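Reading a protein record of the kind used here takes only a little practice. These numbers are not coordinates but entries in a learned vocabulary of local backbone shapes. Here is one such record, which you should read through line by line.
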Amino acid sequence: MARYIDVHPDNPQRRAIGQAVDIVRGGGLIVYPTDSVFALGCQLGNKEGLDRIRTIRRLDDRHHFTLVCSDFAQLGQFVQVGNAVFRAIKAATPGPYTFILPATKEVPRRLLHPKKKTVGVRIPDHLVAQALLAELGEPLLSSTLLLPDSADPDVPPTQGWEIKERLDHAVDAVLDSGECGTEPTTVVDLSGPEPVIVRKGAGDPSRFE
């Protein structure tokens, strides 16, 4: 059964965050809140966690996984960022955007898009997510929590208790700091010469159009 961890939205308790981080470091898979929707998250090198995310979401190998980072310095270790791209991302973060960029050698090959060798990265504007990342000290390998068996599989669940009921035997913990939104991040592919909006979501896409 998944552990249910109730976290204060404005002042995340260190003990609660520590419990979640211990689960991640122990090879576990968690659900946690972000500034867009709930996300699935595990440690970067956790192959079993990656496979569990694929199973829950029924993903193929062309899916872009996301490295959720605490800040720009951390993000820069995992993707190649030129000057123009640096300015564009810097202006939009932290916030509900995911950027697809060429990966550095720090990223395990199994996380990369098989043809493009790219990976998604993002910096959330959410106190609980940031507390989690600060305690962990590295990015969380993440994917939007969308459930293919839902009545509307494109609308993510917004309540932590509902997720706990649905995924009790599929994940190891659910962090709940209150209701999350239903709009995933805006995804922008910055790996080519021009920005490409892959998905319009919670972040204003006009700055990249």
